[in-house]
């Protein structure tokens, strides 16, 4: 009863799966901190499996306002996120091989759900780091929640949050998943 | 009569008007010209915020034992590098490593800095300097501008004549100012000529292990060796040294060492000496390989020169060596090629102390004697065939062509210049853009600070035919000589890398600890914004508890791997302090011989809570 998709649609899925695997090794999201003494900016760059940037320097500054320390250990997601991505890629390949549209609908649903969960997760961490400040900290600041995208000012720092290459590629993967819907629309 | 008066009055009034009008307007034009020249000079030295100077000028600090780093053309003092003298600001001579390196000396006399070279030009790796007072040679690593090794050289009497390096830094040569008793520790000055020698050392520096070694020494005659240079290009296997007191006087040298009409330039082939040492043609002397020129002939020659020369410099093409006759008013240009020919033909005028003396007329190319220019001392070069020589007595710099002897330009300096520096000015590839004369006297150049004056420097733009005086600046004493090097040649780092192989380093605060072994207490701690952690597991992690008489060793690592986040560590009443660069581990070793409670605090302003960066050294009194 479910329609079989065309070869082109299946190819689109295979490409999507490949790109999805590549995103594991690309930065997804980042935050850049600027201050008078740090004109060049300090980075926190989030990959699906690691953190990069000047994490230690950011930590040594954040401790003055009582913010918890960033580290790869403090984000359990970094342990399992690559496997989830790889699993999703496998499901995409599977769908491409079986050429079943019904499976594709499921996949798209899963992808949207994953996206919402991902954004919720970032937001959750931003709230946690910005509001759960150590009351013993030498400098008292009002709790704050930096935006997922855009600017925020806290003390002498202006932060700029942004999505990065991995996320852009993720969007492309999503479009490739939608391609069969358009391709098969007349059949 | 009335008519006459009114006529005369009219003429007078006319003259007055003319004088006031034209007189003042011509004065105005002169002032205007001066002020626009000042403005254009100001523009030539102004380096706006966000931009950097084009050249480093690294000056000797003379009897301060330090080096001073300036930027050219702004002439701003950027940094002081302690070399032969302890420096509380950086903790140099306080922490274990630098304390051992200084060897207990509290002063040094740093004279002539020399940058390491590759193919006859600065390579930006290391800078070498000697201590005339205590017979030491030091290397400064230009990756972090810190002194990395000091060697005390035996058998020598003040390496004033150093340091100069060979074309690829194979050797750093250290000829000396004083001759000393040779075979014995003590000898009568009556036996000076027989018992004394002026020993020259050939020192090598291993750029990997960053260590000096004495390769060999040469027992030269008992004279004073003043300045020296290695050859370049075709003459690169050779080197030249100026001498004075070939009279071998032992008292009142001012008079007695100025009697002979001629002293000598020592011309030697260091490649030959190297080969001689490799062939075992030397004698063991007091732990060193000693070459005796009167026994091992064929490598060292004397060239007669006008009395008591001072500077000796080699032209960038390596064809000429130029001696400046401190007491004679001329610069004498000698030809390496002619000297080699004279050696080949054994064109000697005699022998002195077993060394062949080359025939002056066979080697001399020309004598250059600018009228009224007195006391020539030192010469630097540009890439256009010009030489620039300081005149100490007539207080000026003379620009002249070394191929023709033609004087191109002269300019006053303020006052009494010793050395001068042009960019890469003593290498095979000079960059004739600026000239800095290093003056011995400042007089009333600057705001008065009483009888103690700074020394002074004059900056010139030498890119045109005429030398343009841009400004005079005060300078830390004493700028004997400097090295001016293009900023692109120097590549310093900013943060020390983590070194997991260093057993004294601690990078994770959870690894901090205090260990006790009998009377020895060892602290493995960290400094970070804004606290010390000596033992993270302790109730008070920033407190060290010891007993009176314990030997305390503190290994502290600055774990702020962030540019220019520097911590200090001072201990009150214990006369201890050091500064710590980002990522650096330093060790302090001392005996806790005073009982009491001694605050420990960060001495280098590090952060908003720098004042809170404190701890205690608790020394429990003996029962």
Gap from first CA to last CA of chain B: 117 Å
In which range does the helix fraction of chain A lie?
40-55%
Number of domain modules of chain A: 1
Radius of gyration of chain A, rounded?
20 Å
**Biggest chain contact:** A-B, 8 and 9 residues
Beta-strand portion of chain B reads 35-45%
So what's the CATH class of the largest domain in chain B?
Mainly Beta
| Biggest beta sheet attributes of chain B | 7 strands, mixed
Task: Compute the separation of the termini of chain A in Å.
Answer: 13 Å
Task: Give, in spatial order, the strands making up the sheet with the most strands of chain A.
Answer: 3-2-1-5-4
Overview of the structural elements:
The complex is a heterodimer of chains A (187) and B (623). By secondary structure, chain A is α+β, with helices and mostly antiparallel strands. Chain A has one domain. Chain A has five helices and five strands; from the N terminus they run αβββαααββα. Chain A has helices at 7-23, 55-62, 77-98, 101-131, 165-183, and strands at 29-35, 38-46, 51-53, 150-154, 157-163. Chain A has a five-stranded antiparallel sheet. In chain A, α1 (7-23) packs antiparallel against α5. The two termini of chain A are 13 Å apart. The mean pLDDT of chain A is 92. By secondary structure, chain B is mainly β. Chain B has two domains: 55-489, Methylamine Dehydrogenase, Chain H (7 Propeller), CATH 2.130.10.10; 509-620, Cupredoxins -  blue copper proteins (Immunoglobulin-like), CATH 2.60.40.420. In chain B, 13% of the residues lie in helices and 41% in strands. Chain A binds chain B through residues 54, 56-57, 60-61, 64, 138-139, and chain B through 528-529, 559-562, 608-609, 612.
């Amino acid at each position: 009863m479910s329609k079989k998709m065309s070869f082109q649609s299946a190819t689109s899925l295979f490409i999507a799966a490949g790109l999805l695997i590549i995103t594991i090794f690309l930065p997804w999201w980042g935050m850049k901190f600027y201050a008078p003494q740090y004109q060049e900016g300090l980075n926190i760059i989030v990959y699906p499996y690691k953190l990069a940037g000047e994490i230690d320097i950011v930590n040594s500054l954040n401790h003055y306002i009582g913010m918890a320390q960033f580290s790869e250990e403090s984000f359990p997601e970094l342990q399992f996120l690559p496997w989830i991505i790889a699993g999703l890629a496998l499901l995409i390949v599977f769908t491409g091989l079986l050429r079943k549209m019904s499976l594709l609908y499921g996949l798209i649903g899963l992808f949207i759900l994953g996206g919402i969960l991902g954004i919720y997760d970032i937001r959750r961490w931003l709230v946690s780091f910005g509001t759960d400040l150590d009351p013993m900290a030498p400098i008292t600041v009002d709790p704050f929640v930096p935006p997922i995208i855009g600017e925020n000012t806290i003390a002498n720092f202006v932060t700029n949050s942004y999505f990065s290459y991995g996320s852009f590629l993720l969007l492309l993967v999503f479009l490739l998943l939608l391609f069969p819907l358009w391709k098969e629309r007349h059949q | 009569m009335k008519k006459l008066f009114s006529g005369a009055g009219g003429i007078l009034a006319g003259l007055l008007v003319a004088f006031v009008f034209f007189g003042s307007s011509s004065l105005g034009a002169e002032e205007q010209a001066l002020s626009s020249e000042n403005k254009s000079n100001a523009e030539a030295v102004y380096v706006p915020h966000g931009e950097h100077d084009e050249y480093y000028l690294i000056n000797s600090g003379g009897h301060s034992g330090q080096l001073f780093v300036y930027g050219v053309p702004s002439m701003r003092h950027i940094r002081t590098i302690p070399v032969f003298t302890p420096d509380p600001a950086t903790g140099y001579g306080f922490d274990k490593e630098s304390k051992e390196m200084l060897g207990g000396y509290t002063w040094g006399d740093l004279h002539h800095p020399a940058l390491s070279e590759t193919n006859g030009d600065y390579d930006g790796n290391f800078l070498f300097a000697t201590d005339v007072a205590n017979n030491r040679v030091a290397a400064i690593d230009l990756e972090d501008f810190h002194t990395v090794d000091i060697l005390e050289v035996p058998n020598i009497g003040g390496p004033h004549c150093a340091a100069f390096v060979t074309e690829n830094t194979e050797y750093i040569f250290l000829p000396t100012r004083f001759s000393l008793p040779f075979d014995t520790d003590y000898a009568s000055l009556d036996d000076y000529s027989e018992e004394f020698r002026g020993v020259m050392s050939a020192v090598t520096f291993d750029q990997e292990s960053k260590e000096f070694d004495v390769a060999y020494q040469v027992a030269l005659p008992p004279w004073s060796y003043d300045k020296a240079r290695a050859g370049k290009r075709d003459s690169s296997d050779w080197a030249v040294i100026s001498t004075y007191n070939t009279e071998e006087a032992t008292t009142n040298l001012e008079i007695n060492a100025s009697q002979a009409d001629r002293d000598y330039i020592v011309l030697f082939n260091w490649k030959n000496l190297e080969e001689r040492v490799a062939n075992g043609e030397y004698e063991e002397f007091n732990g060193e390989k000693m070459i005796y020129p009167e026994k091992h002939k064929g490598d060292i020659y004397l060239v007669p020169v006008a009395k008591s020369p001072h500077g000796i410099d080699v032209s960038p093409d390596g064809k000429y060596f130029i001696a400046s006759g401190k007491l004679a008013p001329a610069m004498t240009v000698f030809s390496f090629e002619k000297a080699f020919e004279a050696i080949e033909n054994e064109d000697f005028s005699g022998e002195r102390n077993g060394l062949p003396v080359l025939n002056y007329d066979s080697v001399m190319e020309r004598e250059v004697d600018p009228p009224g220019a007195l006391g020539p001392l030192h010469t630097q070069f540009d890439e256009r065939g010009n030489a620039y020589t300081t005149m100490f007595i007539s207080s000026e710099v003379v620009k002249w062509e070394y191929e023709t002897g033609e004087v191109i330009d002269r300019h006053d300096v303020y006052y009494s210049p010793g050395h001068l520096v042009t960019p890469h000015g003593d290498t095979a590839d000079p960059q004739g853009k600026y000239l800095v004369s290093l003056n011995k006297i400042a007089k009333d150049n600057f705001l008065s600070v009483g009888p103690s004056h700074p020394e002074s420097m004059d900056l010139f733009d030498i890119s045109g035919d005429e030398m343009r005086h841009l400004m005079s600046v005060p300078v830390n004493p004493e700028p004997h000589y400097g090295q001016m090097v293009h900023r692109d040649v120097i590549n310093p780092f900013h943060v020390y890398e983590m070194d997991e192989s260093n057993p004294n380093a601690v990078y994770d605060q959870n690894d901090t600890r205090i260990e006790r072994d009998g009377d020895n207490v060892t602290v493995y701690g960290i400094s970070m914004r804004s606290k010390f952690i000596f033992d993270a597991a302790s109730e008070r992690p920033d407190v060290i508890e010891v007993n009176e008489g314990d030997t305390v060793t503190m290994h502290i690592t600055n774990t702020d791997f962030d540019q220019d986040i520097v911590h200090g560590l001072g201990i009150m009443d214990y006369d201890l302090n050091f500064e710590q660069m980002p990522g650096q581990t330093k060790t302090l070793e001392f005996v806790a011989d005073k009982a009491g409670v001694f605050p420990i605090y960060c001495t280098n302003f590090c952060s908003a809570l720098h004042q809170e960066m404190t701890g205690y050294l608790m020394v429990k009194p003996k029962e």
